[in-house]
Amino acid sequence: MTDLSLLKDHLYTIYSENPFVALLQMEIIELEPGKATLSMPIKNKHTNFYNSAHGGALAALADTAMGMACTTTGKKVVTLDMNLNYIRNVPCQETLTAVGLVIHNGSRTIVATTDIFNNTNQLVVSARATFFVTSTFF
Fold first, then answer.
1. What's the rounded Cα separation, in Å, for the pair 125 and 115?
2. Using CA atoms, how far apart are residues 11 and 137, in angstroms rounded to an integer?
3. How many helices (H) and strands (E) does the chain have?
4. Which one of 31, 77, 81, 96 has the minimum C-beta count within 10 Å?
5. Residue 3 and residue 33 in contact, taking contact as beta carbons nearer than 8 Å
6. What stretches of the chain adopt beta strand conformation (E)?
7. Measuring CA to CA, which residue among 3, 2, 7, 1 is closest to residue 36?
8. Total-model pTM
């Protein structure tokens, strides 16, 4: 088993056991070096007063996708700052896809972006964040 496949197996395990990820029903679609693709259904528990996706649920998906993209580099990270642009309303019963990408992989910080798309591949959120490297996985 290569280091990358060992890391992927480890990431699938730790994210499948994470209670917050499970609560929001996020699922890993694909992991590549510097990239993570996740999905999340928008159910009643994810909505605001208007029965559309709550901004906090969307922010959690964006943060998780970017953070996971960072971890594919083998580094453990925590979020330092994050900026989100909410572009389109997301009604209940949609399933979203988030694509997180590392755009700077430094020794102390990593910068990542994510775009979140709805069922018809329309952009609904665009985000960028800086992460602090705390340690490595192996």
1. 6
2. 10
3. 3, 6
4. 81
5. no
6. 27-32, 35-41, 75-86, 95-105, 109-117, 123-136
7. 7
8. 0.96
